[in-house]
Each structure stands twice: as structure tokens, then as C-alpha cells.
Specification:
By secondary structure, this protein is of the alpha/beta class. The protein is built from 13 helices and 16 strands. It binds L-homoserine. The site of L-homoserine has 7 residues, from helix 6.
Length: 431
């Protein structure tokens, strides 16, 4: 039986999940691959801390070079997260001809091209299945089983923390701050939840998916991104009244030949859309290919064992092909060669909630201003509710497809002309 030796960087939740996944399935993996995989060294800068897992202490090393310089190690598994020093360590491993497996969406979205180039120059493989969608084998599916398709669209719920928060707000009427606290207590959300709740984590994942699906690099910072922090119970109730659920969606599509739009935005999703029933920590990715048509992948997008399963999948894939001339590596996973233009957020339908001045003529002026900018109103509701008898009133619109910049100009004009006190929320509406 061939032996594959692994050096693992990090001993956090995903690393422990990967270790456990290998131990749980060792026999099955060996029987079906004829390869024995062993995690021989683990970078653990604080070996005296109890990690809650039974790992022989002699596997722990405190200096990364004990792994990077070890000629016996075939695969380096990077699970420390963050762009640096993770990128530096992966580059060092690849330049020494070691294969690299990572779950690190931030590092791949920022430096994937450079890492892939080093991998190719050194005949090594770079694999990152766990970087998108946790346990969902979406990258493997797109780059192997679905390779015969030209894709026109990818749509996804790619963050478990925010989907959990939105689900709890929707199902139990809890407010954002209450659910976030609860999610942190349950270990779902990080102590600093910024990357999740501001959509940064999803923008990293979407950037990777776009390169795989369309062959175009769009840096995460260039993707129009809005998190979920502005969503109120009022938005959720209104969505429900109109027949929608609010979800943080990543979207990229071919809007016309040669033009790609993409965004990460909280969206009104029709209640009968398959993505509307993806709840709690689950993720889903919906792709449209010219041969396969619509396809949805659903599963746990976070957590040690689901993510460990994805990491192990990459390790096994590399282990099985080691020593062979793997033809598919001549075509790297990440592609940045497409002749496509990125056209920003694209034209979309939007839900708009404003607080308008409550006096005669205002509603007409708001409608005329939208008309002036060619923003068509599909639905409209005025809800006096708690504002009854006050000087202002909430107005809610769903508008037909429009350019976001044009819509923002119309909304600014409403504020400048004192018809509207504040624009309280603008959310994309998914078709
Ligand atoms: N923080 C991510 C989430 C998991 O909540 O989905 C890792 O990508």
C-alpha cells in the first residue's frame, strides 16, 4: 500500500474535524484507494493547551519549517486561516514540490493565481474544496463532473452564520442583536463576526466560484457587497407579506454575451424558490449550465466534520493520483483567462423602505421622481402603524429592474427635496 504523509498547519476546529474524519474512515479510505494516509506532524504553537482531542503529543511541532522542510511530507494541509502567513506557508510548501490542501477562502480569493502558478511550476497540486460551501463538494462537481457545461449563473447561500441569524429572525421574530448573541453563545458566530455579517466571507467565496465558473478574476473588494446588519424585523415582516424570505445571496450571472454582473446582497427570495427553504447553518449553491440546466447543491456550509470531509476529499484525490501524470492538472482549477467584462451589481429588482414626510402630495412626488429616473413601481405599501398621527410614515416599494446607481440618484433626490426623511433599507429582489 502506498503511504502518503501529511503535515497539518493549525489545530483549530477544522483541523480537528479533518483529523477525526480521517480516523473515523481510515479503513474505508485505505480499502478503496490502496493508499494509507497519515498526519505525521501538526503545527501547534501552544502544545500545552488542551485541544479536547486525543492526538499523540509527538506529532506537534511549534516551528512551521519542521513541516515545510521535511522531505518525507507529501501534502501540507493549511488550516490556520487568514491571508497571511497562510499564503506565505502555502507558497513555501508548493515551491518545495509539496501538494497543498486548504480551506482558506480569504487566501485563495486574494492570492489563488500566484499560488496556482507556483504549484504548476513545481508540479504540485493546490486544492481548496473546503474553501466554499463547507461540506458541499461544489468545486469538485464544477471542475470534473460538470466540466462539459458552459455556466450562465451561480446563486448561493454561502454563509452558515448569517443564514442561521436570518432564519431565527424570520421563524421566531427575534431581532438581529438577540440572535447574534445567541449564535455566539452556541459557538456558531465568531466573537468578532464582522467577516460573516458584513458579507466579506461570502464575497471571498463568490470570487472563487466566479473564477471556476466563468474564468474571470473579480477581487472580493470589487464585488458589490452588503451584509445583514441593516435588516430589521419590519423588513422581514414586509417580505413575508409580499411572499418572500430574506436571504444573504451571492449572485453572478452572464447578463449578456461577454458581460458578467455579480453581487453579495441580502435579497427578497420568492417563498417558493428552492433557496428560500435553506435554513439555519445550511448552505446551498444553485448553478445553471447549458447542458445540465438548473442544479442545486445543499449541505452544511460550516462545522468541523462537514469541512473536514471536504479537506479529506482533496487529500484523498491527491493521494490517489500521486506518482501518476494527472492530466487534469495541466488545466488548473482556477481560471482567469475569459474575455469577459465585469459590469458591477447589474440591473435588479429592489425592495425599498423609506420614511416619508406625511403630508398631501408627497406620495405623488415620490412616484414622479421614480418615474423621472425610469424606475418602475411594481408594488407599494404605506404603513402608518406606529407612526399614525406623526409627521412621517414608512413607505415600501418593490421596483422593476433598474440600475442601482440610478435608483440611488432617485432616492437622493427624494431626500434633497424633503419628501423623504431617510432611506431605511434597499434590498435586491431575486427573480
Ligand atoms: N464562517 C463561515 C460560515 C464558515 O459561517 O459559513 C466558514 O466558511
Amino acid at each position: 500500500m502506498n503511504k502518503v504523509k501529511i503535515g497539518m498547519l493549525g489545530i483549530g476546529n477544522i483541523a480537528k474535524g479533518t483529523y477525526r474524519t480521517l480516523e473515523l474512515s481510515r479503513k474505508k479510505i485505505e480499502d478503496s484507494t490502496d493508499v494509507s494516509f497519515e498526519i505525521v506532524k501538526i503545527l501547534n504553537r501552544r502544545p500545552d493547551v488542551d485541544r479536547g482531542i486525543d492526538i499523540p503529543k509527538e506529532k506537534y511541532v511549534t516551528d512551521v519549517n519542521e513541516i515545510l522542510d521535511d522531505p518525507e511530507i507529501d501534502i501540507v494541509v493549511e488550516l490556520i486561516g487568514g491571508i497571511e502567513p497562510a499564503t506565505e506557508y502555502m507558497a513555501a510548501a508548493l515551491s518545495r514540490g509539496k501538494h497543498v490542501v486548504t480551506a482558506n477562502k480569504a487566501a485563495i480569493a486574494a492570492n489563488g493565481e500566484m499560488l496556482q502558478r507556483i504549484a504548476q511550476e513545481n508540479h504540485a497540486k493546490l486544492r481548496f474544496e473546503a474553501s466554499v460551501g463547507g461540506g458541499i463538494p461544489i468545486i469538485n462537481a464544477i471542475t470534473t463532473a460538470l466540466l462539459s457545461n458552459e455556466f450562465t449563473e451561480v446563486l448561493g447561500i454561502l454563509n452558515g452564520t448569517t443564514n442561521y441569524i436570518m432564519t431565527q429572525m424570520t421563524e421566531y421574530g427575534k431581532d438581529y442583536a438577540e440572535v447574534l448573541k445567541e449564535a455566539q453563545e452556541k459557538g456558531f458566530a465568531e466573537a468578532d463576526p464582522t467577516a460573516d455579517v458584513e458579507g466579506i466571507d461570502v464575497a471571498n467565496k463568490l470570487s472563487i466560484l466566479i473564477s471556476l465558473i466563468f474564468g474571470l478574476y473579480i477581487a472580493p473588494d470589487d464585488i458589490p457587497t452588503q451584509g445583514i446588519t441593516s435588516i430589521t424585523t419590519e423588513d422581514i415582516v414586509t417580505a413575508n407579506d409580499f411572499g418572500y424570505k430574506i436571504k444573504l445571496l451571492a449572485s453572478a450571472k452572464m447578463v449578456e454575451e461577454g458581460k458578467i454582473s455579480c453581487n453579495v446582497l441580502p435579497c427578497f427570495v420568492p417563498a417558493d424558490h428552492p433557496l428560500a427553504v435553506v435554513n439555519n447553518e445550511f448552505n446551498a449553491i444553485y448553478v445553471t449550465g447549458n447542458a445540465v440546466d438548473n442544479l442545486m447543491f445543499y449541505g452544511k456550509g460550516a462545522g468541523p466534520l462537514p469541512t473536514g470531509s471536504a479537506v479529506m476529499g482533496d487529500i484523498i484525490g491527491i493521494g490517489k493520483s500521486m506518482g501518476k501524470d494527472a492530466a487534469y492538472d495541466k488545466n488548473p482549477l482556477l481560471r482567469y483567462d475569459a474575455d469577459l467584462d465585469f459590469v458591477g451589481e447589474g440591473e435588479n429588482q429592489y425592495y425599498i423602505r423609506v420614511t416619508a414626510i406625511d403630508k398631501p402630495g408627497v406620495l405623488g412626488a415620490v412616484a414622479s421622481t421614480f418615474g423621472k429616473y425610469h424606475v418602475g413601481i411594481e408594488s407599494m405599501v404605506q404603513r402608518a402603524g406606529q407612526n399614525a398621527g406623526k409627521d412621517s410614515v414608512p413607505l415600501i416599494f418593490i421596483v422593476y429592474k433598474t440600475d442601482r446607481k440610478v435608483l440611488d440618484q432617485a432616492l437622493n433626490e427624494l431626500i434633497e427635496n424633503n419628501y423623504v426623511e431617510s432611506v431605511d433599507n434597499v434590498l435586491r429582489v431575486q427573480e
